[in-house]
Amino acid sequence: MTAKIEIVGPQRINGTVHISGAKNAALPLLAASLLSDDSLTLKNVSPLVDVKTMLNLLEELGAVPHITSDSLDFQTISLKTDSIDNFTAPYEIVKKMRASILILGPLLSRFGMCMVSLPGGCSIGVRPIDLHLKGMQALGANVDLRDGYVHASAPHGLKGAEIDFPIVTVTGTENVMMAAVLASGTTVLKNAAREPEIVDLANCLNKMGADISGHGTSTIVINGVNSLHHTEHSVIPDRIEAGTYAIAAGITNGCVNLIGGDFRSLLPSFVEKMEQVGLIFTDIDNGLRVESSGHIAPVDIQTESYPGFPTDLQAQTMALLCLADGESNIQENIWENRFMHVAELSRMGANIEIHNAHAKIIGVNGLKGAPVMATDLRASSSLVLSALAANGKTVIDRVYHLDRGYSCVKEKLAGCGVVIDRIQ
Ligand code: UD1
């Protein structure tokens, strides 16, 4: 039996949530440890399932992690990577987490070889890695696809190059940036992703001795260096977790203090759209207070790469707009199959029509509890949010999706007066 969450609504969130370290920053940072034979210490790492999967992968390669728990939700991880003796990411790990591809750049750069299993199908859409591979080839690597594996090698090292990404890719930018760090000469990445998680990775790499500039803009310049050294780095807060709890305030007519970072600049378009919806944001010490105005106005949204509206908050926002006073529209521009939560929200009484990558959401007066199934990470949090607002009992199946990206949900909500039950 898979774990389930049971929620009896309606409930109101009222309190303070300490936002964890960002999953999408921690994963590339953990992979970056492979670039040096000196250790890397990462603070503020959230104990998420995806983080554990990346640690398993690094251990499989020969890395030795030392983990200390600062609290239930905050860990410090030191990685020793001086005895890496395996260069393969096996299918068993890649199928659980596609971000496993992030070891490709660091291993190629430091050891001149890497094999990664090809990722299989994915629930939110085809997730190709062609741009990662083209980037490595541009840096001089030989790349072969054989027996379900990417075989990449650069026996004489990588060489800097100019790479113009045809579309913006977050992990693609991170992977090629890490590969270029130890390459000879200068690499210029054009149309690079500008996400805060890329900036965090580049800042950490620079502390390790890399020479990267332009991160946070669409042109990143990397001057290759010979080696990297030890550093200590604190992972930035998880803007998607912060956005999810902000929506909890909106959907439950409540109020939440999000603590741990400058969430206005981490989520510029999200905050702007949520202000149009009627949420009230107030700057507080080391965070942001989010309060419901008691009214949910409809709004039109399209997902884009940073600083646009994040696709990783699309499902949660849709849950909120189901209760808006009128018609909203969402255009999903990043992933082609990211509306699987729609069928589940409809089971709770939502009125949503889908045409390809476009969803029309006609606000209803209320949602009702129902048995539903989580289909992917962010879809699962949209169901938790709807269940908090719905009348009656909702049982959410397959919450292992939630555990990939949200830690201590039950505890964090309990701290804000909200009760959810986990059934194993
Ligand atoms: C990252 C995030 C994920 C988020 C996504 C978009 C991590 C670990 N995950 O995923 O949570 O939803 O950014 O913000 O940071 N593409 C190609 N070829 C490639 C790579 C990507 O065609 O080689 C396409 C994808 O199909 C997609 C688009 O580019 O349509 C953006 O994908 P990308 O930014 O690469 O997503 P991820 O880095 O996998």
List the helices and strands and how they pair.
Elements: E1 4-9, E2 14-18, H1 23-32, E3 40-45, H2 49-61, E4 64-69, E5 75-80, E6 88-89, H3 91-94, H4 104-111, E7 113-117, H5 130-138, E8 142-146, E9 149-153, E10 162-164, H6 170-181, E11 186-190, H7 196-207, E12 211-213, E13 219-223, E14 231-234, H8 239-251, E15 255-259, H9 263-266, H10 268-277, E16 280-284, E17 287-291, E18 300-302, H11 314-321, E19 327-331, H12 341-347, E20 351-355, E21 358-362, E22 371-373, H13 377-389, E23 392-397, H14 400-405, H15 409-414, E24 421-423
Helix pairs in contact: 1-2, 1-7, 4-6, 5-6, 6-7, 8-11, 8-13, 11-13
Bound molecules: uridine-diphosphate-N-acetylglucosamine.
Descriptive terms for the model:
single chain, 424 residues, alpha/beta, UDP-n-acetylglucosamine1-carboxyvinyl-transferase, Chain, 4-stranded mixed β-sheet, 26% strand, globular
Termini distance? 7 Å
CATH fold field value of the largest domain: UDP-n-acetylglucosamine1-carboxyvinyl-transferase, Chain
DSSP summary, beta strand count:
24
Output the CATH class name of the largest domain: Alpha Beta
Rg, please?
21 Å
Give the strand content: 25-35%
CATH architecture of the largest domain: Alpha-beta prism
Count helical runs.
Answer: 15
CATH superfamily of the largest domain: Enolpyruvate transferase domain
